[in-house]
Amino acid sequence: MSRTNILAVDAMGGDHAPEAIIAGLDIAAERHKLAHFLVFGDEARVAPLIASTKRLKHRCTLHPTTEVIAGDMKPTVALRLRDSSMRRAIDAVVNDEAAGVVSAGNTGALLALSKIVLKTLKGIDRPAMAATAPSARSDVVMLDLGLNVVCDARNLTEFALMGDVFARIVLGLPSPTIGLLNIGSEEGKGDEILNAAAANLRESPIAKQFYGFVEGHDIAAGTVDVVVTDGFTGNVALKTGEGALKLVGELLRRVFNAGPLAKMGYVFARGSLKRLKETLDPRRYNGAVLLGLNGVVVKSHGGTDALGFAHAVDVALDMVANDFNSRIAEGLTAMDSALLAARPVAAQNV
């Protein structure tokens, strides 16, 4: 069996673990006929779930663990749990037993363990969290979504490079456009860091794809395919977008429950509303990727159900199949060469 078809799975992470995790793997197993899963978790709880499925009996290898990283556990405490389902799943990637790992568990713990155990790719200063979101034009990639509160120009340049490769793989775009999130789209807007990052990108191998600065409304409009920002701003934008989607859903419910005529209108609009609901279904966008590590690490939303977790598995398998990390390394080498050629002295310190 090829290692590229093997994923390590933390069966005990998330609000609905292990039931939602195993049910999600069952859905993913139907979509990916060659995939095999190394499942780490409490044998007494997980084994019966696997045995009850039609597809997973011969598609999973269960590795019993004795510890669980709770959702509110501090990363420093989680690091000391050597037999947790999350740690053992990450260890499987380090030991070359699996090509990637998927967890719906504690985000802080997953990041800390991944950085310490897997470590970052050579040439990458900091990993970033990337995910897709809906827009008026098509899906859009956003990063960083919360890992790096403070970033320099080099970090943002690396994020743009990783976002480019991510969009090519996950969205299937041959030449995704890239924008830096700013307080205005005009040249010179924002601080020195944003302007330095923009200068880097204009001299990089992805210069033709660099759109320039974009504003908050451009995310939903789909002005660019990849939106790059620091983790603080990205997380605020992400949570604002999630809140806006919930608001739209609540307002629609109120409108169509306003009276008999409104309910009749719902009957006529039901088909269109169903398509809208499917388009905006957060489960379609589940699966944030920790980019820049020596291995594929996908973070599923902790509160997701089986369908959402299956989507996170889809993302992980896509990243593995398309050799994401090798493409990042190649792009980083090309970018460094371009920056050094453009600015032989200054580029080394940017």
Walkthrough of the structure:
The protein has 350 residues and is an alpha/beta fold. The chain is 47% helix and 14% strand. The protein is built from twelve helices and eleven strands. The chain has an eleven-stranded mixed sheet with strand order 3-2-1-4-11-10-5-6-9-7-8, with helices on both faces. α6 (153-170) crosses α12. The termini are far apart. The model is unreliable at 345-350 (pLDDT under 50).
Radius of gyration: 21 Å
Provide mean pLDDT, rounded.
88
Count the strands?
11
Shape: globular
Distance between the termini: 44 Å
Give the uncertain stretches in residue-range form.
Answer: 345-350
* Strand fraction: 5-15%
What count of helical segments does DSSP give?
Answer: 12
Largest sheet: 11 strands, mixed
How are helices and strands ordered from N to C?
EHEHEHHEHEEHEHEHEHHEEHH
User: Strands of the biggest beta sheet: in what spatial order?
Assistant: 3-2-1-4-11-10-5-6-9-7-8
Share of helical residues: 40-55%
Indicate the structural class. alpha/beta
